[in-house]
Amino acid sequence: MATRHQARTAVVGLLYAYDLGNQNIAKFSDEILEEDKIRNKQREFSHSLFNGTIENLEMIDKEIEKHLTEWDYETIGKVEKSILRLGAYEILIAKTDRAIIINEAVELAKELADEKSPKFINGVLDAIGK
C-alpha cells in the first residue's frame, strides 16, 4: 500500500505536468496513480490534493509570490513550484499541520529538485504558515 509521501510525490508529478501546459492531465490521473500503485484511500487523498491545488491555484500562486523575497516567481523551477503549490494548499486550505507539511515538502525537494531547493522551500512555506 502506498504511503501519503508516495501520494504527494505523485501529486507533484501531476502538478508539474499541469504547469508544463498539460491542462488535461486530470483525465489521466487514475492511470498515473495506478502506475505508482497508489490506490484506495491514498488515491482519494491524491485526487483531493491535486484538485484542491488546481481549484485554488490563483490564490496559492499569489500567496507564494507574496513571500518570495529574493526570487522572481517566474524564474522558480517547475518542480519547486509544484512542491510549493502543494505545500501552500495543504497549509492554507486543507489546514494540515504546518510542521508536517514543511517536512514533507523538504523531503520532496531533496528527492526531486536540486540541492538548494529544500532550504528555499522550507523558508517560503514557513513564511506562508505564519
3D architecture notes:
It is a single chain. The protein is mainly alpha-helical and 130 residues long. It is built from seven helices and no strands. It has helices at residues 4-19, 29-35, 40-55, 57-66, 78-92, 98-112, 117-129. The longest helix is centred in the N-terminal third of the chain and has 16 residues, at 4-19. The radius of gyration is 14 Å and the shape is globular.
Main attributes?
mainly alpha; 130 residues
Helix and strand content put the structural class at mainly alpha
Gyration radius over CA: 14 Å
Helix content: over 70%
For the residues shown, what is the average pLDDT?
Answer: 92
Order of helices and strands: HHHHHHH
Query: How far apart lie the N and C ends?
Result: 34 Å
Shape: globular
Q: What's the total helix number? A: 7
The main pleated sheet reads as: none
The parts where pLDDT drops under 50 for at least 5 residues are none
**How much of the sequence is in beta strands?**
under 5%
The total of beta strands comes to 0
